[in-house]
């Protein structure tokens, strides 16, 4: 759900106190057009921007649709002034989200060529203010949101282990966390993976391991515990990790470093 | 100025309703460390995040400082719980802004090797919600903000020209705009550049012209009117545009497509 | 984390535009005192109210502490005017949260007398605007938050089953949900419990079953799938449900119908 | 007036960043149904929740209507997805407000059996964030809001009297307060009641007196000064206080301790 | 109470996204100085602006103090950059409020020369967003706030009387309104004044009557009912109305048309 | 663009928690009527208020229209309750803005009688919270907004000159400011005006000079540099300044001291 308050803030920061260039009378139609191939996302957000200014979105692609250069992504109809005011913000947010979906789709495709069952996931490395938009863009690209916020899943980290021991920390957080919450445990050595599983981890995060080490750790884990590879993995590294049998490959770069998809808005 | 309300929203979206993993008693120190070379920015924003949770920032680099891998960017001191809660958001915002500053600096350096006088500028293609943070990151990288919002400078565009003619549109907006506001005019043909200047443009935007055409247009302009090259210019294109004698090269990719700079936060 | 904006709204709604009765000069001390026995909670929120008006909280009990009538829960020191302005809001929020903690503790104790392993959990039936405060009050009373929001855990409900079939719905949401998210399935007949487990449910919710039927369903479930009893369960019903071997007993009344704990604030 | 911003916050806290269970296509109808007898309130708030998500409320009872188990309180029509998202918040707020209205009505009826002229009033002991909703629920139950906020009416309290004397304090606040504002004075001894009246009180609050003492104080007051009984009065105490001839009986428990009225929402 | 959120909005609207002129290093002192004689107000608001940016207000006059040209109203100490950023907003709000206090004081003095007992009151004709600041400025000038908002006092107006009759409307609102709320009745003919009093009005508003008619109406009213003269009364009209024996003279111009008091801020 | 959040705040501050006087059933029409001649503004804001409460504005004058006493400015149609709730806020904001437009128009007319080319401009001395509304009101009255916020135009002030010298400061800010931003320089002596122009000022502000000195300074300036007279200029001073040949006359009193235009709202 995109909050009208948030849309208002986006528009306000782009408009300022007195804009004289968009006082265009009458009605107009508009279309958001892809200028390069990719996967679109953030269209809910773009539509919320137009809605806020009472411009109708008459047609739009589904989140996650593949586009070619020249494809129309979304069409609008409404007052020219409002359309022009919405344009830049709508393009910025959908271009940003589509960039994330496009990169995610690339990683997912690379992974699935090797291993149909592996999931490509985002991380908490999102742009402040855009957690929801970016997580949904990862999903539009075929990826997995991973944990949405700190309260969604417990992550047992090295500082917890240093303080309470591996088993101690897991037991502690199993107790502290709701039955509704999964517990994931970060390990740095393959031999800690089965210990974590034994102690009650739902998921074991194999931190900064190369593919060979990852494979070694995966093999030590029982079937009903998920494994996740994480740590600076690039799209080009995905096939090697996918081949390890790991369940999840998570990549911060999906959200923090994907270039925008080139979209442009045309009126009239 | 970064708004505490905005910081609160950033923290809230990362925290959720009930986080059990950060209930660490006592005080801790922390440091934000560069894991790759680049130019840092967004440190005001990162500091605002720590401030909000009453963690002291005891030391930090200047916005725009060059860092090497391993350099400490910022140090904190305060309650462990608050430090851990601030960490992810502080890293996300400063990594994002530093990515922009780093790419800007690369473009500026590429330009200045050819032409000391040219400015590299951002555009309005910023991430919604982060206009101020991103514009200041462009400045930290040695770039120029370009117009901050629609009210800051009048941009006479093709739709205005279509409706009122080139001279008509410029006269109209000269009249409408405050004396405090510059008027920039977008032209697509070199021969329109001097017409725009004649009609009162402060700046002429040479839209989507290749370097040779850009140079042609620049030569037709009087000295007291600025020229700007714009339209899909990549860092690798910068030297060729810088050589044309144009005053400003603007690049949307500085803000919408710069990968994050790899920063990491360590406590204790 | 309690948001200063939220505290500001609470204070504003109680203060109005021009209050003349609290213009008391000088400093004062204050103490929040229990007027009946119970379990305290919401002290973070009460402290945030005093903090907002720059009144120091010099001492306070832990969330979840048991109090007797006359016990001091929290002490303050600061400007008399600010103390008086904070008082009513601080008492209201901590009395409300403590009422929830007290009722939760009663249910937990009743359950544990019969079965040490069962969890008492809240629901999403919380007071609008107070989700976090109330969930943390449940925890202070020894309870389990249950899911914090719709995104925290997937709940497969009767309408989903009607549309896709039990197995179909579970498979669908296993796919849709992140690997980080548990899937709970609501069933109305004991024999559907093992079907849900088989199809991949992490938790099976036994909806509106009496204790005998609940026990029957629990026995049909494999050990590694959790069971939850839910539906109008009162504190007096808890022992009977606890005896069924169910893992979780959830009760909306913990948050929507607990009377406030009687706390009072005294200055000077 | 219920603020859309407030509704947005309520929905956001229940939804989180990525809910996958409510993506139901098409339109649906819904009805809010009473599962126990009572008095309904908060329907304005429930309607605001549906409105916010563009679900039509096609029919609803009046605030303050009496319902039996099974009665339809409100009907909706609109997109299934939006209806499902609004449901929990709409039920929570109207159940909460209806619980207050129901308890208030019980107290009012108990009072009126003894004395038709007495008013049952709320206090400032409301749930933070819900002052307006709860005060209007008291009205729906036949009660009196009492003062809405600190600025609405001056309350002269024991600390004021300690500082300035009874007459001194009343004179002081008569001067400080607007002519538009009533002045109520809290007294602890019956003989102070006529002194307060004499000194200019519009209303005298008889604090923590038992019914007999209350009656004694009421008899000492002139006719044109109102009397209010307050201090831990339960519904079962109401008839005894009503019989004293007091004008107003105020009860914090109306708002801080009323159990929710059991309402449920059904679609399709 | 001035809300930090409101201060943040004020500062944000003056600052924009990137201000380069206030980057002054080091500390500075500042003083707010009167450039003409008057009565100061809004100093709480000005202090809140400095506080927000962590500039100390080391000394300030009381709200309502009389100043001569050259008098120092408030002194600050803190970072130069923050001081310069706060300056314009702090001057704007205190100049505005002081203008209101100054005009109010002029009206109060004019009234009291004729009649010590009459009150000069504001109205609801305040600048949107500044209700509290302006009402408190009226008080600083020796005036009466009148009703603070629609919920503070019931005003029975001509449209109510047209619908229900004078007595009917008063009876209706006596019933509807809390015992804590006064009821004022607007009349246009002197002979309606005693009818309104008889029917239960606490205050009778004599709408748009000249002084002679006002006097006539006042004489018809019993002593325990207040009278208010209202309707386009200017400061120069005040003595004539004060002489009528009316209790309250209300003037919209106090808040909607008072020129700002000339204040200036000097640093260093 | 007027923010619905801002409108919500305006309405909330006028309404309070429980208003009983505006519960009028049915529909009504309304009209905003001028009670004195002037220039109207703020009608966008008034319309936003009605819109917020879903009252249709069926007709309205243009911003900047001249009105006579009795002219209808705006007509509404919608629910009576919502119309009555919107009325006071809509009148307050449009009366305030129209007062500014009316005073601006008076100054502009006075100036143009002497010199057609001179501009009358506002300043940053606006009412906190209303920067946009007031700047647009100045425009409605035929004036110039001047700089909208600190980021819009660089103003080189005496403290900058004291620190860096006149030429140094101008060079510094030319470098710091975007190419999109004009640089204005404040001078106190006529002979500094050409120095500032020479050093790169786009505009020279002639601070607190009398008309004769202003004229002297204007004559020293080259044609392509604008001049602005500022400092306590009243409407009666405008002709003398207009005769000096200065390009811009700026007046803080347009926004901080214009009396409201008398508008009234009538229903039915």
Helical proportion of chain A, percent range: 40-55%
Strand order of the largest sheet of chain A: 6-11-10-9-8-7
Element order of chain A: H for helix, E for strand? HEEHEEEHEHEHHEHEHEHEHE
CATH architecture annotation name of the largest domain in chain A: Alpha-Beta Barrel
Please compute the radius of gyration of chain A using only Cα atoms. Answer: 22 Å
Helix- and strand-based class of chain A? alpha/beta
Beta-strand content of chain A: 15-25%
N-C termini distance of chain A: 30 Å
- What can be said about the biggest beta sheet of chain A? 6 strands, parallel
* Total E-strand runs of chain A: 12
CATH class of the largest domain in chain A: Alpha Beta
Basic shape of chain A? elongated
| Low-pLDDT sequence parts of chain A | none
CATH superfamily of the largest domain in chain A: Aldolase class I
Classify the fold: give the CATH topology of the largest domain in chain A.
Answer: TIM Barrel
């Amino acid at each position: 759900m995109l909050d009208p308050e948030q849309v208002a803030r986006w528009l306000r920061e782009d408009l300022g106190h007195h804009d004289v260039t968009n006082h265009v009378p009458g009605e107009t139609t508009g279309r958001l057009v892809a200028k390069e191939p990719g996967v679109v996302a953030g269209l809910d957000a773009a539509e919320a921007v137009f809605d806020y200014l009472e411009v109708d979105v008459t047609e739009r692609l589904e989140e996650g649709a593949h586009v070619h250069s020249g494809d129309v992504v979304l069409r609008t109809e409404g007052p020219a002034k409002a359309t022009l005011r919405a344009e830049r913000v709508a393009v910025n947010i959908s271009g940003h989200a589509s960039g994330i979906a496009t990169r995610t789709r690339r990683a997912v495709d690379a992974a699935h060529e090797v291993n149909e069952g592996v999931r490509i996931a985002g991380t908490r490395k999102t742009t402040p203010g855009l957690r929801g938009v970016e997580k949904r863009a990862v999903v539009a690209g075929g990826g997995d949101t991973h944990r949405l916020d700190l309260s969604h899943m417990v992550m047992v980290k090295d500082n917890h282990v240093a303080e309470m021991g591996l088993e101690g920390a897991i037991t502690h957080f199993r107790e502290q966390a709701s039955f509704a919450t999964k517990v994931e445990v970060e390990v740095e050595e393959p031999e800690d993976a089965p210990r974590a599983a034994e102690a009650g981890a739902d998921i074991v995060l194999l931190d900064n391991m190369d593919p060979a080490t990852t494979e070694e750790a995966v093999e030590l884990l029982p079937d009903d515990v998920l494994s996740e590879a994480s740590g600076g993995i690039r799209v080009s590294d995905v096939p090697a990790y996918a081949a390890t049998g790991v369940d999840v490959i998570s990549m911060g770069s999906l959200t923090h470093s994907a270039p925008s998809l080139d979209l442009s808005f045309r009126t009239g």
